Every structure is written in C-alpha cells, then in structure tokens.
Fold these 3 entries.
Entry 1:
Amino acid sequence: MQTSSVLHRIGRTLLASLFVISGVLKITAFSSVVGYMDRIGVPFATIAVLVAILVEAGGGLAILSGWQIRPVAVIVALFTVMATLTAHRFWQAEPAGMQNQLNHFLKNISIIGALLMLAASADSPPKEK
C-alpha cells in the first residue's frame, strides 16, 4: 500500500491542532474550566485540569513535532476516552441536550480512532516519493 508523507503530515497537524488549541484555551480560562469540571463531578478538578492541559497541549505539540508519536498518541487516546466518558454522557443528558452530547461523544470516538491509527503507523512513517 502506498502512502503519502505529505497527507500524513497534514493529517497529523490537523489532529494535533485540536489538542494544542484546547490545552491553550484551558490555560487562558483556567478558573472557569476548573469550575465546569467541578460542576460535572470531576474529583480534584484543579488537578484534573492541570493534567488535561499537560496531555492536550504537551501531547498535541509532541504529535505536531513528530516526537514520540506512538506512546504520545496512545496516552492522548486514553485521555480522550476518559474525557469522553466524563464530559459527554449523552445517555444521562436532558432531552434538549442529548443530541449535542451524542455528537460530541461520536466526534471523540472518531478522534480516538485517528489517534490509534497514528500510533499504529508511527513506526514506519510514509517515505517521501
């Protein structure tokens, strides 16, 4: 199977951008994010937000730069599983918000899939043609 290193790099950049931007936004609105996490029942919300910033911004930058892609992609995928199960419980949402939470849940499932594909392909990135 022939793969494109340019498409691989673009895809990695787009995937990483989600996490880098999300991590930076958590930094700029730290107290609000901690308050939100506390409201949805996340224990030790301040620590949880600090970990989220580290995984999102740090992991996103690592993926973007190509540093330790396999382990970082797995860590970010596991983080995304936990975040999805914590913040997008569509099965518990009020009827008015159920579709929105379901959309976020499914989007995150797709992102987890992309991260796992990235981890699987990280050993042999595509060669330039």
Entry 2:
Amino acid sequence: MSFIRTFHGDIEPDKLGITYSHEHIVCRPQYWVEREADDLLLDDKEKSKLDVLDFKNLGGQAIVDATAIDYGRDVLAVKEISEETGITIIGTAGFNKSFLWDATIPEHLKKVTGDYRTFHEWIEAKSINELADFVIREIEEGLEGTEVKGGQVKFGTGYNRITPLEEKTLRAVARAHHETKAPLHSHTEAGTMGLEQIELLKSEGVNLEYISFGHMDRNPDPFYHAKIASTGALLSFDGISKIKYAPESTRIQNILDLVDKGYEDQILISGDTARKSYYKHYDHGLGLENILGKWVPRFIEEANQKGYDGEALIDKFFIQNPARCFTFKK
C-alpha cells in the first residue's frame, strides 16, 4: 500500500497534484526569536495564507512545509491555512541543523521534549534510538502532541561539516524512516556535505531512492549533482527566486544538465520561502506566486529553445516526481 501523509490524513499519490516541495508557511524559529531577527519570523497566519492563495490561484495544489521542531513550527496555524485554502500540506518530523539548537526550548514544547533548557541539551542527552522514537511518534501519532501527523522525516548538517550531534540526528531519522517508511529529506547547508551524508545513510541501510537532498542549487556544481543523482536520490532545487545566490540561468542549466544525464525523474522544484522579505504579503517580496507565475514560463521557453519538451519536464518536476518522492511505501 502506498500513500502520502498530509495535514488532513493520508491520500493516494496521484491526488497530490502541482507541488512546491520545500517551503515554510508559519514559523517562529526560537534561535531567531532570541536574536530579534524579525525577517526570519513568519508569524502572521493571515499574511501567509494570502501567499498560499496566490499559489492556489495559479493552479498550485500542494505544499511541503519543511519546518521541523527546531525551526518553530506552528502546526495548528498551518492546519487552518490548509483547511481555509483547500491546499494540501505535508508536514515534517525530525530536525534541522545544529546551530539552531543553541536556543531555548519554548515552554509549549516541554511536553514532548522533556524539561531541557535548550535543543542542544535535549539532543545531547538522548540516545540515537530515543530520538528515533520521538520522530516515529511525530509520524505515527502527531507533530508536537497534536493530531497532525508528519509526512516526511528530516535531518540537516552545517556548512562543510557534520557535527557529532548532526550525525546523531541523521542516524535517528534514518532509523525512524525504517520503522515508519516515511520519505526522507536532507537539509544541506549551502548545498554541501551531501556525499558525506550519503555515506552515513548507507551505513544505516537507507535506500537512497527514498530521500530528497535540499538546497542543491546553492552549490551549482554539475559533477556533484550527478554523483548524488547516481545513487537514486532526488535533488531539490529549492532556491528559485533567490537571485542573490545565483541567476536563474544557472539553476536552469544545472537542471538541464541532469536531464541530459537521464535524471529528469529525480528533480524537485521549490522556493524555501522562509523570510518576510521573500513573501509578497509580508514585505512586498516575489512571494509564493513567483515560481508558477514567472519561473515556470521562463523555464519552458528556455528549455524549448534548447530542444527539450519544457512542458513535459515541468509536469515531472511539479507533479510526477513529488508524488513519488513523498510516498510512504509499505
């Protein structure tokens, strides 16, 4: 039996539709709260909902909310947005990267984490299997004690390094994946350490066809991308609209390079829209509408000019590949 787990229960994979594969909808990361970094706090449900409606009005049907417990999830607010817009949303169990753990655990999370002062203390105190059990509960019972079950498991590592605690959470998430059959997602800081993560995942017996590697376009290296794709893993190009990191021409060429090598079934697209200044209805940014509204037409035009079938590739990147990537395979 195969299914995708959403904020409103399990659905058949072919019901997912046009999907953004890595976004953040409502979140207040405690690390950034304590540093008064307001731009990184998506703290207005109604403004977030307006951007989700923009996405829907352009034909969007589903969003993967990649917000883990250490990135300030607001599970109930996102659930309400899903209900009020009709957009299917997939939630995320697991963890992000270690520098975020230098932050106080909010009181409302103590009921699920225990009475630890910081995320770092909590993760350090628990064994790999105890952390795996926590992730399993978030998939099988609900995120943060709610009835909303997670639809993927996530881990992350830092820029050009994997700390001991990051390895610990990676192994915990891998074991939770084996128990639940939930799809895996990796945060790679600036697109680094993907190959090193792969070696650790192999040591945990993970089938790499069940994982997506995030932020691949932050490291626009075709050789590196091909090495990751050769394992069967999916690559998430989730920095669309962020010209400060690279022009869209670079991202599009990276994607077409993978297509040339036969990896078109392993590509996901999204925006990782995690700042007020990225959102249209918070701070006049390009918003969730930009990918479907402007990037997709540009990609189709450029791909067609180069002899590809741009429309067919977009169907794979936004419909077929997400439907396969986010499926529980039991």
Entry 3:
Amino acid sequence: MTQSLLAKQAYELIQADSSWLPALSNVAALLWESMDNVSWVGFYLKQNGTSTSMPSSPAPELVLGPFQGKIACTRIAWGKGVCGTSAATNTTQLVSDVHAFPGHIACDSASNSEVVIPLHTASGSVIAVLDIDSTSLSRFSVQDAAMLEDVVATIEKLIDWTAFEPQID
C-alpha cells in the first residue's frame, strides 16, 4: 500500500519534532487546511481515572488535545459518543449521520457526520483518537477513513509519547 500524500506530509512534520504536543498540533492543522468541508479536526487524549491508587478508580476518559475549529467538549467518557466508542472498541468509527448514532455527544450542534480513528502506543494500547467532523451528512467515505488511518499509522510510528503523562493525579 502506498502512503497517502497527507501521511507523507504528516511524516515530514513529525520528523521535524516528534514530541506529542507539537506533532499532534501540526497534524491537526495539516488536516484542517487540507480537507474540504470539515468543521472540526483534533485529538482527544486518554487519561486514566481520577486515582490510580484506588482499585475502584473510574474508567479512563478522553481529554481535549490539539485541534482546529470551534470550541469543543473538553472531556468524553470512555465508551460514550463516537470518540469514546472508537477508543473503547479500538475501531475506526465512520458515521454518516451523527444524529442516528446512539449516545452521540453534540459538542457542535451543526455537526452531521464524523470519522474517528484510534491512536496506539508502541505496545498497542489506545492512547488517543483523531476526530474529524463535518456539517454535511455522509461527508466521509471509506476511502477517507483509510487515508486517515494511514496518517494515524504514520503518527504512531514516529510520535514520542515519553513526555505524555496519561494519568490524572
């Protein structure tokens, strides 16, 4: 499989600085500038429950990371909405009509379709999700999802997560 142009551009950006914050910030900007008819592009990062020392600690949650677009939800419960479902099931979510998605979280009421792709650490665990929204119904195709999975695979190979602390203390 050949690497998509966006994946090649993401590669070049991350090669310049593979720290997670600038890498995800620049990839969000790249996708925002490169994709037509999108209303929001960004990342939500995994954080574990409120206390790692308590065995009854709640499930992880997704916390807003680098993005481009309107003001966004800051926290999404693991397994809830399109982003939380993608993270919990470790699957790409391609939703042509978010209003028909059970439990959809409407951060922007104008959003009508969405694609979400999980990102993984080197060990294979979900560390974040890439979330892209559009005001158009059925904006994202299977080909779009595959291209974005290619971008995510590039991020996963290059990003340096060592400075990322996925715990809330």
